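Protocol step 4 of 5: obtain the predicted structure for the target chain.
Materials: sequence only (see below). No template structures provided, no constraints applied. The aim of this step is simply to have a reference model before the mutagenesis design in step 5. Sequence pasted as it appears in the construct record:
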Amino acid sequence: MLNNQEELHKKHFTDFDGTFVGRLARVIPVAANYTSEWAGSAARYDCRIKIRYNKELMAQLEEGMLLAVKNFKGQSKRSVRDGIERYTVMVISKVWPLHYGLGGVSDSHYYPMQMEIIEQSVVDWSTDDQATMMVHMTAVPINYDLVFNAKGETEFRKGFSYPLVGEEVFVINMETVNQIYNAKVKEAIGFKSKTTSESPHKDPRVGKLRMFLESDEQVPIYVDLHKLIRYHFGVFSFTGGGKSNLLSNLFRRILYHTDDTKIVIFDISCEYPFLLSDILSDPKIPGKVILEEEADSPEEFARSIVKPRDFEDDPRANEVLKKLYNDGIVTHYNQPLTQIPTFSSLLEEIQDMRAGQGLDKPHYIQAIEETLDFVNDWMEDHNKSASDVLDDTFIDGFAAKAKSAVESFNVHSSSGVYAWATTRASLKRNLARAKKATSKGVTINDILKMFSGDERVICISMADPDVLRDLVIGLTGAALKYRKRRFEIKPQILFVFDEAQEFIPAKASGLTERCSYAVERLLRQGRKYGLGGAIATQRIAYLNTNIMQQLHTFFVGTLPRPYDRTVVSSSFQIDLSILDKTLEFPPGSWLLSSYIATGLDNVPVFVSADNSEDSLREHIDKVLKASSSK
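Step 4 output (structure tokens):
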């Protein structure tokens, strides 16, 4: 039995060449904090671990590593009878060394003596003196048990088991971590290769785990791409944290390693035509770039697109954009001459009319409410949604009803309500003007046809937020309605809302409010019909909280504001002590957690994402080489 246990430990744990010897010293219950809506902690216990000092060990240990400690369930009669070992799994949240001599130094001591003790400690740190120094560690249970059965087989069981205080602590090794996070996911996405690569063509990985960074080998990290899309995800980081880099990296993996998934990007920053220029140039992945206004030349198009800092002064970057223009990938949005009248805009107009009436004219309000009832009844009887465009048949009926309402309630003929009600037939002219279009560019109906066409990438790059919001309302509503009627779930369509604060702010009115509701409806209902959403922003605290609750996967980079981190902690049940680690992250490093798309549900892990700009440099070199050979 002892030999079997030693073999299991050797197979699944690492002691860093004999340097890691630690014990669980304390388990401290964490009291829940309900003093505010956003207060709270995901962890119920804070575990304190004491480890023998070793200078090399201090270089190897990192926050985010997984630990295992035997627990009380492993001592049950059943576990003993069946030869089962159970370990509580926890994640390291903080590591620091302690020096016995420095601990005794006080500000009240004689100053020269303080300095002498401090200076002498420098020499001690370079030794492995375990009598003078010790390593302390805090860790948070992740609510999983690592279970070994009598045959040596491993299993991860969800649920918290109280660890044995005083028991030896083990660090889970690289191979077992790889199995924990990746085995189930790789099987789900059908990726069987045992080797890993940064190339998005060869490998669907997101990046590497930020564990064992001093090791020559690295552990890749995978997510279930289909579940990532279907159950929505968010990317949150401060400016310069690499949100767009990560998103374009994810888009490459999705497009190369799923059969027919489509991506629709609402690009208010006008940066994705360059960030995805290699994808858009790939003839195997048809795509379109839709601008706000027509670009008259390749040079004008190249100037209008924002580039990453490292490419701003690189003239070669413009060449790949010119190629997109010359290849016919670029078009523009053919906006209606007037706003297309929809049931949503009509209802808003009626409600504004009603709100403008005083209490001294109740018969005016009654006349308006009768027209409102007519619209609602028509929408219900004819299965119309708020985003649907009015038609001639409805306008004829509505105009007749509005006129009869003001006449039956004796609304004065010189009033504004009477003038409005008796001119509703003018909606036909508005509808005709809205439908009138030139032959150039694409209309909203053309974009909707792309959802069922060959295009897999539709990048809508426009700087005017109101135009984009209007498209969000129309496109998401129509896509959802079409899928509901046909009950289709394929192909999956991912709607991307970069700079999400422009589309789904917490407090909004008018067009922005309707846009926020459209996105909320998409995320609430879309997963049943293969429609997913991606949200990216630098200020998570300013977003519609109903939408935040729909996200099942999230990537968190550096968020300097404590309030933002507290919102993440509350929304996704991640301990603040783990989230605070993101403050140390360089650009491109993320805390990843998912309820459904990773190997362990709702277990945070630190990852270093592959750099999307490497693919861009490779593409630029390829384009220039091809052009020079002509």
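Step 4 remarks: The longest helix spans residues 465-486. Residues 60 and 559 are 26 Å apart (CA to CA).
Proceed to step 5.
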